[in-house]
Amino acid sequence: MFYTRVLRRALFRLGGGDPEIAHERTLRALTLLSRHPRLISALHRHFGAPAPRTVFGIHFPNRVGLAAGMDKDGTALPAWPALGFGFVEVGTVTRHAQPGNPRPRVFRLVDSEAIINRMGFNNAGADALAARLHALGPLRFPLGISIGKSRATPVDEAVEDYLASFRTLRPYADYFAINISSPNTPGLRTLQDRAALDALLGALRAEATARLLVKIAPDLTDHAIADLLDVCAAHNVDGVIATNTTLSRDGLHPADAPLAPEPGGLSGHPLTTRARDVVSFVAKETSGTLPIIGVGGIHTPDDALRMFDAGASLIQLYTGLIYHGPGLIRRINRAVAMLA
Ligand SMILES: Cc1cc2nc3c(=O)[nH]c(=O)nc-3n(C[C@H](O)[C@H](O)[C@H](O)COP(=O)(O)O)c2cc1C
Fold it and tell me: pLDDT tens across 76-135, in order?
């Protein structure tokens, strides 16, 4: 396969093997590509895969989305559907622009097909994203916007911080992903607790109608997830995104053991089963009534189909794209279309 044999090798060598440099250059190339509608159309013909589905009242061209974190500031937006994605989640953005954690902050665990990251919400801020989305005009695919807490804002002032991003970006989002599950912003995950989540969702709901989804961590106990789902139900949340990265280091290939102690969230293949189990638990707890976006360790069409079987209405990928390229999106879409 061209991607794994040629392109991935070249990408993994860029910047002396620094994954963040590979990421920046790829994003820059896709941003340039986004300015060439003819190229975009040609790619779309190759990778595009219509398999429409309506979920929480939104029409999705297909059920495979780009997960948050890949295109945080939305610089390459038109390129993603051309690679086969049916929707895109930008962000996580914060009220204030911020640089994130010091580098290095991304690590490839190649034998495990995994990544550890502690980016810490590096992003240009909600105002900059709003300006970019305004300039782009209407998009031809659903856009999710993930919002999180600025690092400089104390946890007990988080509600105002989320609200500010929400107000700025409301005109542009088909749905908001409320990110309370990143392990890389101190205190953020405490917002998954009942009282804190109740206050946050109450404030967002009081603002106006917008589709709200809550993104959860794979490290919560069943009991904590059940609690969280109660709060989501009380505020008519439109769906859950399961899951974010994990603090666990289970399932790593022994060759990657030296990188295991790096602080941060683990994504990719070692997360496949846990993310699916969380999706399955949420689906059972809510009797299949709450739409779920399943994300975590989807690296094959079979992983995708099993995520749908577990109860996901839509899925997202990040790490699988790094290791398998856009051909994986096409293969997944084909597998899904065969079942439809
Ligand atoms: C480098 C990197 C940065 C990420 N940044 C974000 C983020 O800003 N917001 C978020 O909600 N999730 C973020 N994620 C988590 C992904 O969206 C996804 O939930 C997780 O990686 C599991 O999916 P995967 O195994 O397909 O990568 C990030 C993941 C990676 C690898």
Answer: 999 999 999 999 999 999 999 999 999 999 999 999 999 999 999 999 999 999 999 999
Q: Which residue has the tokens 């109860």?
A: 311
Closest-CA residue, ligand 1 atom 23, reads 296
Q: Using CA positions, which residue lies closest to atom 15 of ligand 1?
A: 244
How far is CA 235 from each of CA 118, 212, 223, 239, 314, rounded to the nearest angstrom? 31, 10, 19, 11, 22
Given the CA of residue 23, which atom of ligand 1 is nearest to it?
A: 1
Going from the Cα of 317 to the center of ligand 1, the distance in angstroms, rounded, reads 8
First to last CA, the chain: 27
Residue 49 has pLDDT above 80, yes or no: no
**72: confidence class by pLDDT, cuts 50, 70, 90:** very high
pLDDT at 259: 97
Tell me the CA–centroid distance for residue 116 and ligand 1, in Å. Answer: 10
Pocket of ligand 1 (CB under 6 A): 67-69, 72, 91-92, 106, 115, 117, 119, 121, 146, 179, 182, 215, 244-245, 267-268, 271, 295-298, 317-320
Residue 190's pLDDT is: 85
What does the block give as tokens for 239? 């769906």
Q: Is 182 a catalytic residue?
A: yes
Whether domain 2-339 has CATH 3.20.20.70: the reply is yes
CA dist., res. 108 & res. 293, Å (int): 25
The model's pTM: 0.97
Residue 208 has pLDDT above 80, yes or no: no
Query: Nearest-CA neighbor of 118 among 219, 186, 179?
Result: 186
